[in-house]
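Data card: per-record layout.
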Amino acid sequence: MSLPGRAVRNAGWLMNRFQRSVWVLVWVVPVAALLWYAGAQSTTPLTRYPYLQDMRPDRVTVVWTTPDLAESGVVEFSTDRSYSRSVAARVTEIPASVTGLGIPYYKYEATLTGLSPGVEYFYRVLIDGGELAPPDDFQFRTAAPGPFTFLAFGDSGWGSDGQRRLAQFMF
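The structure for this 171-residue chain is written out next.
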């Protein structure tokens, strides 16, 4: 075989190897990452997405609700996304007789204490060791001295077009 023919054949082999590498990077790595992340997710459905209440300069309570009773509920938090501190949640059963929905619900509350005023915190919520949602969604800033503004909203509803317009107006 001539030198140009051998170069073409070697180039083809190299291209096939390159295509296999690209295929691994484009398909295998993301799918493996997704499967790993999905394995780290909780299978517990949420009835009420985590929300904050009773915020003060040195504390805040994280609350969420599920239709299933879990063995453990935990909030991990930090100022740098290391989630180096954690608090176990208290669980309260809301009986079916109260909900009127035929099944009980479980309200989880974790009070984060020892916080610094006016500081941004990141947190994640875990049920039985699995994350309820990607942690990038959860952050807050503690109350600080001085003037402030706030918005009180009673119910986020079901996500209708009117509710989305209202949310846009608020922000």
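Known properties of this structure: The longest helix spans residues 3-40. The helical segments are 3-40, 96-99, 161-170.

See the next section for split statistics.
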